Amino acid sequence: MRRTSIASSAFIALAAVLGLAATPALADRAGYLETIHRHTTLALTTPDNGDLNPYAVVVAPVSAGKVLKDDVLVSNFNNISNLQGTGTTIVDFNPATRKTTLFAQIPRDTAQCPGGVGLTTAMTMLQSGWVIVGSLPSKDGTTATRGEGCLLVLDPNGKLVATWSGPTISGPWGNMAVVDKGDRATLFVSMAGFDVPGPRVLDPETHYPIVLHKATVLRLELAIPKDKPPVLTSQTVVASGLAQRADTDNFLFGPTGLALDDDDTLYATNGLENTIIAIDHASTRSDSGGTGRVVTRDGLLAWPLAMAWTPEKHLLVTNGKNGQVVEIDPRAGKQIYAQWIDNDQAQSPPGNGDLFGIAMLPDGSGFYYVEDDMNTLVKATR
Fold it and tell me: Read out DSSP for 49-96?
């Protein structure tokens, strides 16, 4: 499917039609997205077992085991029956050969993971070669039968070697922010599963699934012994009280995107509130920063999901409610630009529910993203 960029004036007109506010920065300031003009479909993300719904996108920082440096790893959240919370596979796309192979297929009924396996957007590959991925499982594709889930540790050949679970871990959901020092690492992961009921439990006032303010962002400290799996040494909740709720079509909504700045500010997407928030002193604080401070809200945002840093230290944020990616200057609190990267007219608005993970190309010249409607990995470049 052909993807096109929309110039500023055309975007403003279309934004008005779709009820989206265009910020002043859109008209008077150039950004990274304005340099992106080509969108190339690279590969199908569905492996032989038929798993669907690509979520996480991670670029390999090293060559290890079956993975080569700069390969792209993609997790799948649905099984062949398209039931959410039942996907068990991670695929590996090699940009040089343009071949896609199966990196891992984790047993669905892994007993050490409460509720089983349903792979989410929470995934990273460490410099030591270990892959860590979140699971938020379901038996019937809804949160009515969800399990608490866990974090799964895989070796560089895709073999499951450890699971982490416990009272602070409930539905590891969003893309991770990572500080990797080789022999130790810090992970930030959003947790969106706490006490979430089934999607038919409605708020009597709104008649939508009930919203709970129990989602968190958890900081995990890891020690990584040479040639041994990472060891979880400490856990700290650095954000809490964030919005989460079940959803029939989207399984659930909760904080998804995480990005750590050089000044130790952790930015997070709080999708139900349609905001980007900031948590100060994220790597060193010993308590929760609560719901943080609002950096920007509404405007071009429409259920903001995953985030990635541009070379200019702007954030690219995928929207869940339409097929746009939004560029934000977080330090200035300004929304700069938005581009339609999935304009599938089968959804309303176009691309609604199609975008999830995003990751920058290693040289910063573009970014990778996945399209749920086509089960594909796409590259956006200049």
Answer: T--EEEEEEEE-SS-BTTBPTT-EEEEEEE-TT--BT---EEEEEETT
Tokens 């999607």, residue located: 199
Are the C-beta atoms of 151 and 174 separated by less than 8 Å?
A: no
Joined together, the tokens standing for residue 330 give: 């977080």
Sheet holding 231-247, edge to edge: 177-180, 184-191, 212-223, 231-247, 251-253
pLDDT digits (tens, 9 = 90+) for 147-162: 999 999 999 999 999 9
Backbone angles phi, psi at 13, to 5 degrees: -65, -45
Give 196-242 pLDDT, tens digit per residue: 999 999 999 999 999 999 999 999 999 999 999 999 999 999 999 99
Residue 377 identity (one-letter amino acid): L
What kind of fold does domain 8-381 have according to CATH?
Answer: Neuraminidase (2.120.10)
CA distance 21 to 335: 10
The model carries a pTM of: 0.92
Q: Roughly how many angstroms between the first and final C-alpha of the chain, as a whole number? A: 18
Return the DSSP state at 208: S
Domain boundaries, the chain: 8-381
Using CB atoms within 10 A of its CB, is residue 65 exposed (0-12), middle (13-18) or buried (19+)? Answer: middle
Strand partners, 260: 266
Q: Taking a C-beta distance cutoff of 8 angstroms, is the pair 91, 77 a contact?
A: no
